[in-house]
Amino acid sequence: MLQNQLPHNHGQKIEEKFDHMPSLEQFQVVSEVFKTINDINRLRIFWILCHCEECVINISALVNMSSPAVSHHLKQLKASKLITSRRIGKEVYYKAADSNLVNHLHTIIEELVEVSCPSN
Prior knowledge:
Blueprint: H1 14-17, H2 24-36, H3 40-51, E1 54-55, H4 56-63, H5 67-79, E2 83-88, E3 91-96, H6 100-116
Antiparallel strand pairs: 1-3, 2-3
């Protein structure tokens, strides 16, 4: 709810819209998600892991980056709970987390690519 009276009344009844405005804390959570994927390489890695489960070596080859650089991005994605990992022997496999947040985020990325980069 809007706590202060607006200086100008433009007849929009905007106060009613603010009854449904997310809290500052909710905006902060969303902002943190966007900060995590606000890197082209991390975004590419996340997109790949939404489509398959892979190890660091293969991800490195797919994005043409060194394994340490990929590992750095994977650490950030994992800390944000956007991806998960599992170990089989010495190999660690990564994939997108199975959550509503990740599913929605993947859909949003796919739609933004379609809108921003339409095929002719």
